[in-house]
Design goal:
Three copies of one chain form a homotrimer. By secondary structure, chain A is α/β, with parallel strands linked by helices. In chain A, 30% of the residues lie in helices and 24% in strands. Chain A contains twelve helices and 19 strands. Chain A has helices spanning 2-8, 18-28, 91-94, 125-130, 176-195, 211-219, 253-265, 281-284, 319-338, 370-381, 388-395, 399-411; strands spanning 33-39, 43-44, 47-48, 52-61, 67-70, 85-90, 98-99, 121-122, 135-145, 148-156, 163-169, 201-207, 227-233, 242-245, 269-272, 293-297, 341-344, 383-387, 415-418. In chain A, strands 1-10-12-11-13-16-14-15 form an eight-stranded mixed β-sheet, sandwiched between helices. Chain A has a four-stranded antiparallel β-sheet with strand order 5-4-9-6. In chain A, strand 2 (43-44) and strand 3 (47-48) form a beta hairpin. The longest helix of chain A has 20 residues, at 176-195. Chain A is elongated, with a radius of gyration of 26 Å. Chains in contact: A-B, A-C, B-C. Chains A and C meet through helix 10 of A and strand 3 and helix 6 of C.
Amino acid sequence: MHGLASEIFPFCRSITGDGVRETLRRLKLDLPLEIHEVPTGTQVFDWTVPKEWNIRDAWVKDPTGRKVIDFSESNLHVLNYSRPVHGRMPLAELDAHLHTLPRQPDAIPYKTSYYKESWGFCLSHAQRESLSDGEYEYHIDSSLEDGSLTYGEVYLPGRRKEEILFSAHVCHPSLANDNLSGIVVLHHLADWLAEIDRAWSYRFVFAPGTIGAITWLAQHQERLEGIQYGLVIAGVGDRGGFTYKRTRRGDSEIDLLVKRALRESGSSFELVDFTPDGYDERQYNSPGVRLAMGRLSRTPYGTYPEYHTSGDDLDFIRPESLSGALEVLLRVCSLLETSPRFENLSPRGEPQLGRRGLYSALGGHRDSDERERAMQWILNYSDGEHCLADIAERSGLRLQILEDVANTLVENELLDLLGEA
Amino acid sequence: MHGLASEIFPFCRSITGDGVRETLRRLKLDLPLEIHEVPTGTQVFDWTVPKEWNIRDAWVKDPTGRKVIDFSESNLHVLNYSRPVHGRMPLAELDAHLHTLPRQPDAIPYKTSYYKESWGFCLSHAQRESLSDGEYEYHIDSSLEDGSLTYGEVYLPGRRKEEILFSAHVCHPSLANDNLSGIVVLHHLADWLAEIDRAWSYRFVFAPGTIGAITWLAQHQERLEGIQYGLVIAGVGDRGGFTYKRTRRGDSEIDLLVKRALRESGSSFELVDFTPDGYDERQYNSPGVRLAMGRLSRTPYGTYPEYHTSGDDLDFIRPESLSGALEVLLRVCSLLETSPRFENLSPRGEPQLGRRGLYSALGGHRDSDERERAMQWILNYSDGEHCLADIAERSGLRLQILEDVANTLVENELLDLLGEA
Amino acid sequence: MHGLASEIFPFCRSITGDGVRETLRRLKLDLPLEIHEVPTGTQVFDWTVPKEWNIRDAWVKDPTGRKVIDFSESNLHVLNYSRPVHGRMPLAELDAHLHTLPRQPDAIPYKTSYYKESWGFCLSHAQRESLSDGEYEYHIDSSLEDGSLTYGEVYLPGRRKEEILFSAHVCHPSLANDNLSGIVVLHHLADWLAEIDRAWSYRFVFAPGTIGAITWLAQHQERLEGIQYGLVIAGVGDRGGFTYKRTRRGDSEIDLLVKRALRESGSSFELVDFTPDGYDERQYNSPGVRLAMGRLSRTPYGTYPEYHTSGDDLDFIRPESLSGALEVLLRVCSLLETSPRFENLSPRGEPQLGRRGLYSALGGHRDSDERERAMQWILNYSDGEHCLADIAERSGLRLQILEDVANTLVENELLDLLGEA
């Protein structure tokens, strides 16, 4: 995953344009990913798809003609969505277009101006301080034209029509944790899911933050009912422990499943309640949408110094952190795939387990056996409201045992698997 | 407020009669107060408006002809609602009509016999002990005749038809904390509210305890639906910290607002759950009425020695305690007036805040900004179920910021203020 | 109760057969108990009533012809539901039919094979170890034939049609705590209830575990709606404190009443949440039945070494433990009988208590009187959702006072007793 992150790190992603397109094309090499283009001007809920931004080159030359800022060295150097400009002006005047972080003098900030036409350069405060006065030449070879917003979607149909949604934002340029980490982890998760026989259908949305999620929601309104719940993945590459932000409902099945997966993974983690800020969980949990979408991150965004700076580079994300996040998601998906929801077909009293050989006909066991309790829990709670992992969380019984027992009960026509086509 | 309390302290209030009438007339000098007379015999729910009681004089003379008990010194000396009597009897016989507090030998108790015809005198136990045997002359120049029950009502219409109800009992004679404190605080609150441009409509009920509240409820049955919630104010003049008794529902908006106001006021306070005893919150929260009425008091009634004795006098209540209570209510009303309930008009995903200039179009702020979070909280929770102060309590964000942001969102047609005409 | 337990201890109870029949006949001597026979082959939900098992004699003789195992000494010696056999085989071969408890070498285990035809003997491990090799003669004079399953039912009609259900399993042979303790305690409870004028109707089910409860449920489907809630009684004779397992709902009125009764009894007790294992509460709380049935036990089954062994004998159960359990149930029934549910007939405001003489017309009591608060609590909470014991639990007021006050309120036509015919 770290290798894939390295490959796509240099692409100059934004909310539209070739950087996103290149990124998605790279993902498409390994995945059944559909790339959707939504034309500039399309109305998406309250928003309008903006003009497409592309950039080829950008630089600033000092009075001696030396390039002191060069887009080819880091695409963070350009204020994202800068309009094309070329000219000369004294440093004092140019200064209004230079963005730095005085408190982190060695870091280049990441800045954007998506919805207000502007232009500018970002550089380290140390470099800014070293510039001497004089006439500077500046050049941004960009375009802001009618085009489209691009998002990628992987749909992996399963035996159930109900979908589990995963979403990662793809709009930031050379920032590794935010959100190459989410992209590459979901890429690998989708790759893994594509190969298995799926009980659930899965949908992966790789879209620019905010406008991309909103575009996707607007174009899938009729599909939202079919989405069971899902997760936003962002910022999972740093060294920190996990932070799981619950869905707005707070006790959606996905909240239980992620909790279980985190515990099973042995990672340190913290569970936090929903707040309407953050990444695209804002859109998915908005009052007119109400999808139950949690978010898996490591260190919360905005709380680490590298956030939205050149410090969020490929060294900042750790292969083991990425694989740890993938592992948690694989555990969630394993739970999802293997943790079915049943209907007890013999709900009045207990069914006769003995005549079906379901426990040794030789009764009188001294200790209450976990397997027997598993049967009892499953039969009692299989009223359509509790999946097996939910029952596991309630009962404290091992999921393995519960699964095993449930399969036996299905074979014996005591349970009917809900949701299978 | 203490001055007003001093003015009305001497009036011999009861559940009917001129004492209440005089009190209300005094309040009417400053307030648009309507005085209602409900005739004796009127059926009010399960009750009947009783005969009107008035008293001009009352005394007891000892065997030497000296007035040992004199109504003109304290109206507590007469058992409230005593019928007219005049006669002589030996002290041993008169004793059945003398009420004292042996455990508080210097205090005159406050006693009533509203619904059972009786007569009697109240005096300090010390004085009772000092009386020598012999023939005593007693005299009560009162009347118990068909008349009316009097209550006062201030209605302050606002832009919303929904009313906030404040209620104070006015039946007790010369007791300062119970409930001149509530009367004068509500008098000042009404005075203040009368001057402002009101979002909500307010109704103040100054009525005798129990029978007065019931009479008011019975005569306003068709209006009860329009009452959002409210507060009973009683016993807010002593030195103690506040006690807020929640509505029966326990999580009504008024409960949150009072909690917020108390915290903001910096006063010490305790929150207690509803119980069906106490003052007129009993009537308002009764099962056939179900108004959400909390009660603000200081030291709980019945737990201070001055309660229902001559010790509850003008020295017992403190100007700073009265003004502290008024301050809390002003804070509650400020919250009410400024803490609207909105409907998110763009509930699917987030609306495009940037194109409306709602936050700097220059994105990429490093820290999550409180104002931005405020927008997110308001937009996400403006589903009609959460007013702004509720959102403030949930989010921990400053109400000032939330209000500011909400106004902006309204201007931008992203929110619709619910409840405005 | 211990004497009755001693009388029925020797009967060889099983899920069918004369042991149960004899047990029920003994109970019928004192109780209006109906004995029901449900023929072999009857379909009861998912189950079929099995063949009836009876046994007259069983033994094993060692190579010298000495009886080393003798059913007449303990009916635990035979694997319950053993088919008739007679023959000879070497000890090594017979061993497959011998059941012991190596960890409790002196105890005879209790073993069954109800639904799989089998035969066997149970003996102490010490005895097994002492047997010398050689040819053994074995003999089981039993029968497994079409017959019936027998259960007993006591129905005690009350003024209300709604029934309270008590259930004890009667299938185990000479085990005292499991469940002669439950049988004799319910026997005495039924005896006591039979003598009183009952507000509620009561039903006692003495049935074999699992199949008996299921048979009863299957044959009373149309009656289940009329069952308010109930209790399973099992394992209440040992020295341990009480364990009360809540109904699946967890806050059913019976859960509150048992909690109250346990507290009042002064016994040590623990409250545990419902789990779908255990005794017949499994059947009653199954998803297609959903009766609110808690379970009262002492030491939880399976956690004491004597469980399902010859150690669970008449010495293991204590007269004082049995009477302690009976006392708790009598308390529960007393609460049930005396803790009615009312409708406030004057729910708008408080009714006028004074004119009815409901409290001293002489007002102004200094302390809030418990009786007055009781009136207020009852009137406020008598909305059909709270019985008097529930109100007692909420208010912390004494039930005696609440009852007294409620009776007065009924007499004054302020309350209507709900549920009376």
